[in-house]
Write a sequence for this structure.
C-alpha cells in the first residue's frame, strides 16, 4: 500500500473533525429584545418580556412570565441565591452592558432575566439555547435564571461527538500505519 493511499483515510477523518469544529462555532440565533427602563436583548431566546422593578423582588411561584406561573429561582450571578439546579457557567458581568452568557442546563421552561436601571428583561430559552450574547442599555445590576419543571444536564453537542469520532478515527489510522492491531 502506498503512502498516498494510507494518507487518504487520515485526510478524510481530519476533514470530518474540522467540519465538527466548524459546526461547533456556528453563529448565535437572532437576539430577542424588549424595552422598559432600558433596552435588554439576549440571543438564542425564543421570546422576551420587559417589566419595571426588580425580578428577585417580584418573580415567585405566582408571578406570570410568558403566561406561565410556578417559577423557581435557580441562580443569581451576584450571590448564591436559588436552588443551583441550573447555573451560569458564563455569567453576565455586573456593571457591564454586554457580553457572553452560558447556562449548565435547561428545564421544561427556563428564563434568564437581566436587571438594569429600574426594570428587567425576561428571556424564554428553548433548546439548544444554552449560550449566547446579551446586551443592556445601562450597566447590569444582576442576571438570574428561573425555571419550571425538571432541570436537565446539558448533553454533549452533536458537534462534540463528531469531533471525538474524528479524533478516534485519526488514532485508529495512526495505529494501522504503525502495524498495531
Amino acid at each position: 500500500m502506498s503512502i498516498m493511499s494510507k494518507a487518504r483515510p487520515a485526510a478524510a477523518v481530519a476533514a470530518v473533525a474540522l467540519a465538527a469544529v466548524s459546526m461547533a462555532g456556528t453563529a448565535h440565533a437572532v437576539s430577542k429584545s424588549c424595552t422598559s427602563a432600558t433596552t435588554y436583548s439576549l440571543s438564542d431566546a425564543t421570546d422576551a418580556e420587559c417589566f419595571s422593578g426588580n425580578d428577585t423582588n417580584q418573580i415567585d411561584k405566582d408571578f406570570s412570565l410568558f403566561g406561565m406561573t410556578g417559577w423557581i429561582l435557580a441562580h443569581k450571578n451576584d450571590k448564591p441565591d436559588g436552588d443551583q439546579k441550573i447555573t451560569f457557567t458564563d455569567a453576565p458581568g455586573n456593571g457591564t452592558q454586554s457580553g457572553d452568557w452560558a447556562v449548565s442546563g435547561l428545564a421544561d421552561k427556563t428564563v434568564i432575566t437581566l436587571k438594569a436601571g429600574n426594570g428587567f428583561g425576561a428571556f424564554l430559552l428553548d433548546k439548544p439555547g444554552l449560550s449566547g450574547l446579551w446586551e443592556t442599555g445601562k450597566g447590569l445590576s444582576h442576571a438570574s435564571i428561573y425555571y419550571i419543571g425538571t432541570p436537565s444536564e446539558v448533553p454533549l453537542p452533536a458537534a462534540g461527538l463528531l469531533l471525538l469520532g474524528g479524533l478516534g478515527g485519526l488514532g485508529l489510522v495512526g495505529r494501522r500505519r504503525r502495524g498495531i492491531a
Remarks:
- The helical segments are 3-24, 55-58, 158-177.
